[in-house]
Amino acid sequence: MNSLDAARIRLTIDGRSVEVDAGTTVAAALVVAGVSGARRSVSGQHRAPLCGMGVCQECRVTIDGRAHALACQTLCREGQIVRTCDGEGLP
Ligand code: FES
Q1: How far is CA 29 from CA 17, 20, 43, in A?
Q2: DSSP string spanning 47-87?
Q3: Which of 2, 38, 44, 66 has the fewest C-beta atoms lying within 10 Å of its C-beta?
Q4: Is residue 49 lining ligand 1, measured as CB closer than 6 Å?
Q5: Nearest CA to ligand 1 atom 3
Q6: Strand-pair partners of 70
Q7: Could you tell me if 85 and 69 are in contact, meaning their C-beta atoms sit under 8 angstroms apart?
Q8: In CATH, what is the architecture of 8-83?
Q9: Where are the domains of the chain?
Q10: How far, in Å, from the CA of 11 to the mean position of ligand 1?
Q11: CA of 31 to the centre of ligand 1 (A)
Q12: Residue 26 confidence (pLDDT)
């Protein structure tokens, strides 16, 4: 590996294995995984990351069993398990 090669990280999103560069946020990994929504609104609509800076709260997912984690404020880690509304990770 040379200095231009980023380290790769493998995590699981809704049961699917996803590989991303080190330093990737979970919100970006959701896009890589093709996930359409992070959570559902109280009326059942898909909600997805919007602001990317921890304000809107639309990117809440369950990360390693911790509910309501902000995907845009969390970096991917090796072996991490992420559940979205599609994976029934949130109520
Ligand atoms: S995208 Fe807005 S808080 Fe994460």
Answers
A1: 11, 7, 26
A2: E---SSSSSS-TTEEEETTEEEEEGGG-B--TT-EEE-TTT
A3: 2
A4: yes
A5: 54
A6: 60
A7: no
A8: Roll (3.10)
A9: 8-83
A10: 20
A11: 14
A12: 98
| Residue 90: predicted pLDDT | 47
Helix (H) or strand (E) holding 32, with range, is: helix 26-33
| CA of 72 relative to ligand 1 center, distance in Å | 5
Instruction: Supply the pTM of this predicted model.
Output: 0.88
Strand partners, 13: 16, 82
> Could you tell me the mean pLDDT of each successive run of 10 residues in the chain, 91 residues long?
74 96 97 90 92 96 96 98 78 42
To which H or E segment does residue 30 belong? helix 26-33
